[in-house]
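Recap from last week: sequence in, structure out.
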Amino acid sequence: MQLFNLKRTAMVAMLLGSQLLSNAAMAEDAQFWLNDGAASLNDSKKLVPNAKKAKNVILFVGDGMGISTVTGARIFEGQLKGIDGERHKLSFEEFPYVALSKTYSTNQQTADSAPTMTAMISGVKTNDGILSLNQSVARNEPSPTVLNANKVTTLLEQAEQAGKSTGVVSTARITHATPAATYAHISNRDWEANANLSAAAASNGVKDIAAQLIDNFGNGKIGDGIDVVFGGGRSYFLPNSITDIEGTKGRRTDGRNLTQEYVSKFGGVYIENQTAFNALNPVTTNKVLGLFNPSHM
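Predicted structure tokens:
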């Protein structure tokens, strides 16, 4: 009986949904679509290029967010609001301009986050698994000389060189491919801590991704250090002799505590939970490293 009632309820819901869709379709006659098209055209004619100088630039990256994902999100959000999901618009779809990009890497049709973010943040396409190096570098290249000779400059680095404030905020590990491409140059996206390096890379002195967040900036390097870093990946910054506030041991085998190095080198503060975040004073805090989870958020 209970199963029958569930089926009957589902059938009623389907019928009601069909009726609503039928009513909507009846309202959308030929003239409706002509008027809709004319209104869109008139809005486009009113667009005027913005020649003003931007004060800040924020690049939002929806990792893996292709057209089908956006379509699904649009329909779902519209339905949650009780309106026609197909004709609904997400907030960023209200922007005056839109463009598409080809996301292939130089050696694969279906790329991963490393070469795609490298392309976004530097303008240069590269091979799969590679972070902010050009395509002449093979994956797992262990030579620091080769890596240094084939770096591509990122937008974050350009901003640092220009004396601008910079930041990286992610729901993933800060050492993961998408955020890491903004500040690290490495031949394998998986080399997030020194313990992850290949034997050849480690013996040659290749810097892991987490270490590059410290070593690539300040003291004769680029700029004066990234001003705001928020995300996960705490364990990749801590030595394996330390257990963090969540009971997770650090992953580093070189003894470096990169959270302490960030504070001492750049004059910043380090936080790792909501309480410390809420206590931050933006007036007196110039630089902050926040690692809120041992791995992804």
